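Re: folding output
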Amino acid sequence: MQRTNFGEMACSIARALDVIGEPWSPLILRDVWVGFSRFEQIQADLGISRKVLTERLNHLVDHGVLDRKAYDQRPRYEYVLTEKGVELIDLLMVMKGWGDKWCAGEAGPPVLYRHHACGEITDVDLRCAQCGQPMHANDIEVLPGPGAAVRVSGQ
């Protein structure tokens, strides 16, 4: 079955999904972020097949989200987040907050975040980049941007 090419859509959400929309990709990024940088470490943590992990790592490297660094003569590689990858972690932090609220159950969140700047345990909070006020789905109006696809009314 041919997969839809989300990267061709005039939608930034679809284009992001083209990079990380497969379920293993965010978990691989999370693992690299918390310090699992080698193939064997990621595979052991996730219980993912070697074939799928290889495909996902290659995809993330090809899209500039991870870099592959040789650490052995064989060669063997470790994976590090690029600047693009670090910015994706912000998205995953927001997803974690949603998961904590709606999916964590009675046990509570499996991980906590301590903010380096203040030392406090905290959560990510979406705020407007212009005024600093909280910003959520009901607080905004969606407008066409310069890269919007041309749409004909009624079609």
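--- second protein (sequence, then structure) ---
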Amino acid sequence: MPITKGFRALVDEAMAQVKTYSVSEAQAKLTDPQVQIVDIRDVRELEREGTVPGALLAPRGMLEFWVDPASPYFKPVFGDEGKEFILFCGAGWRSALATKTLQDMGMTNVAHIDGGFAEWRKQGAPMETLEAHKQAHAARQPSKG
């Protein structure tokens, strides 16, 4: 069966309908407590390339389930309507599609980073290894007991 609308058309349509930040605009928001950067890349990319400090790691394949309060996989962080969620992927294609999908689900507090992690890295924005990210995340969690 022939493809009647290719990925490029889907990405272009999404880009026309979502809020897009440049790397420098997103980087300026890193310390804003009302902003959550969301890395939607898969674990192989994270292991190979690292991520953005403080990013929430939310694999693209689970995003809709993590966002929906009716889902058994819901993550409460996504229920904070006071936060802006800024998604990124490798090149900005998946994050554009994901941002559009979250908008279609009713989220208005969502955007993505133009050029994704490739552009982030190219511009010398802050990065950390996956291992450093896990250690920093563990340090931010309240102790149990």
